[in-house]
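We were asked to recover a plausible sequence for a given structure. The inputs and outputs are reproduced exactly as logged, with field labels preserved.

PROBLEM: sequence recovery
POSITIONS: 273
GIVEN STRUCTURE:
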């Protein structure tokens, strides 16, 4: 009869079979290393790269290149991430972008202001020392000049020379220098003036005044009078309707503003004197 032992005997432990696993290839040859983005306020964004284990070539990883370059000995790297500024950085970038056109507008405005200021200075200099625009009021110089004619007065003319007989001049009214008149020079300094029945004589020589029509002549008498040195005798062309040296005396040279050079308005009646 066969006898069985009821006691349990555990099996003997079996040692597992050992297998040598091949070394895993370098992750640089199959993909991209994990990247991390770190930034601190005020610093530019930098890119960190997890270092790769050394390869078999003397412990030096030949697959790593510079940021943005193609890795040496491996596949091309993806385009490096462009740092995106956020928070205060984003506002700074936008403000700088807006400041560029504003600065250009400011420069152009400043240039215009300089141009206008220069024009104002030049105009002031021209009016003060060069030329002046004047308007005729009244008929004392008719028919040569009419009421509301616009004139250009050359203020430089008598800085270089003296007024001459026959010149049409703009002058300050001797009895009230706040007013100005337009008259014609009849006699110069040291000349003798005499008027007989409206006929003018200078140094006893009849004045050639064909510019005065018969209906504009007067019939008064004056003189004879010698024009003092530094003074001039003036009259209006409308002899019977003019207040001039026959009534308020001689005009000092310093009161003569300039020579009437041009009538520019009305345009059809424009004329150079």
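RECOVERED SEQUENCE:
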């Amino acid at each position: 009869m066969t006898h069985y032992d009821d006691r349990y005997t555990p099996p003997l432990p079996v040692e597992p079979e050992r297998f040598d696993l091949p070394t895993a290839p370098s992750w640089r040859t199959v993909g991209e290393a994990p990247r991390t983005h770190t930034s601190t306020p005020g610093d530019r964004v930098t890119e960190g790269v997890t270092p790769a284990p050394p390869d078999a070539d003397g412990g030096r990883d030949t697959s790593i290149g510079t940021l943005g370059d193609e890795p040496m000995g491996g596949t091309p790297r993806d385009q490096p991430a462009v740092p995106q500024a956020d928070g205060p950085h984003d506002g700074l970038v936008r403000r700088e972008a807006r400041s560029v056109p504003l600065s250009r507008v400011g420069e152009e405005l400043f240039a215009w202001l300089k141009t206008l200021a220069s024009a104002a200075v030049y105009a002031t200099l021209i009016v003060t020392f060069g030329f002046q625009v004047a308007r005729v009021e009244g008929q004392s110089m008719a028919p040569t000049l009419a009421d509301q004619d616009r004139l250009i007065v050359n203020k430089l003319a008598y800085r270089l020379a003296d007024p001459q007989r026959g010149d049409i001049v703009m002058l300050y009214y001797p009895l009230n220098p706040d007013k100005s008149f337009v008259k014609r020079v009849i006699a110069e300094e040291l000349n003798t003036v005499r008027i007989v029945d409206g006929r003018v004589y200078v140094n006893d020589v009849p004045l050639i005044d064909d510019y005065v029509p018969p209906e504009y002549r007067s019939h008064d008498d004056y003189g004879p009078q010698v024009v003092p040195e530094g003074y001039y005798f003036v009259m209006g062309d409308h002899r019977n309707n003019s207040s001039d040296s026959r009534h308020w005396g001689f005009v000092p040279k310093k009161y003569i503003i300039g020579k009437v050079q041009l009538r520019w308005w009305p345009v059809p009646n424009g004329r150079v004197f």
